[in-house]
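input
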Amino acid sequence: MTRRRALPHGPSRPHRHRRHRAAAALALAGCAALTACGSDEGPPQLTWYINPDTGDQARIAEECTQASDGAYRITTSILPTEADGQREQLVRRLAAGDTGIDLMSLDPPFAPEFAEAGFLHELPEDFARTVTEGVVESAVIAATWKDEIVAAPFWANTQLLWYRKSVAEAAGLDMSQPVTWEQIVEAAQDQDATIAVQGRRYEGYVVWINALVESAGGKILENPEQDPESLETGLDTDAGRRAAQVIRDVATKAGGPGITTADEEAARALFQSDQGGFMLNWPYVWAAMTQAAEAGQVDEGFLDDVGWALYPRVTEDEAPAPPFGGILLGVGAFTEHPDEAFDAAECIVSVDKQIDAMLSGGNPVAAVEGYDDPEVRDAFPMAEAILDSLQQARPRPQTPYYGEVSGSLQRVWHPPTTVDPESDPDEAGDLILGVIRGERLL
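output
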């Protein structure tokens, strides 16, 4: 995911968006209120459980309904804001064999759990091949469990290093070349500036932890497909300790006073302030910062001072592993209309619909060809950097026990200001294994 709360006013896409939106919205609302919708007398009604990102998902549902020529009708139901809440609602219903979940937007880390539990419908080979063809490798990896594609990549996401050109230049940083975390910490200190990150005790913080461990050449779980007794963690290693040291350095030297409660929006606010220097965040912030500039909420010339680069390196000689987020589209295992659901899913994740979602909500497309779209390049001047980052991105640990992994890391490594590189990697690894094996509680 994982950027899950994008702002609603992204760049427009005139020739694709003039589609009687008001009428479509009324039709969907009316269908949700009337029991006649989806009755035996009409086409099957498919319910798509969507995450609350922008991206005109309700409009996409209506367009795919129209494209089906009466074969089915798609309505949408909004999931909770936080990823954990989305997972909880879907798990509770699918565990009861709910036939009303035809399609679901799924945060990538939860795909292995849902697949292992039998909550996702097996994908036909031709469907799996179609929805992953031409898609960035990180999205394909995230959609795979035990060598099988289990969901369709809908949109991908990754973080960039955003920086104030004036700050970097004054600190003597050449941002056309790869930079390390040590370099940007020193630059921020030199210029009395900040590094805005996500340090609140939530999933966004685990995104940062995982990206640092992977960038340092390690893995949180060494063998995530194994059974609990055979699992091994890779935290009590040089990579785990280097990752912890980066967090401690950023938090205590340049993270700002609110780092322990900072999410994506708090990070953006800090970056836009007079103390802004560097920021790790998802591409949605470009549209958000543009909107802030147009509203006069930032200093004149702010946007011209914003630059972007690939994720910082942990070590100078090793390429970074940026975070991978986004949304997968799953077909519910208990749907009563699987053929229609797969047809609808193929329409929803088509390249054209992915581009629409990016332009209206800021969520990057998973299809490589989407980055050649002139409107994408016009709305996102950093499109090439986004694609480069996605090609290097690494998913969070792919395991049915991801909830336990995430919860354990949040417990031991928070607050970031007190992370101990010598003891916390080992402690977190022990807690992860203990919780997964039922020997300890979170």
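quick obs: The chain is about 45% helix and 10% strand.
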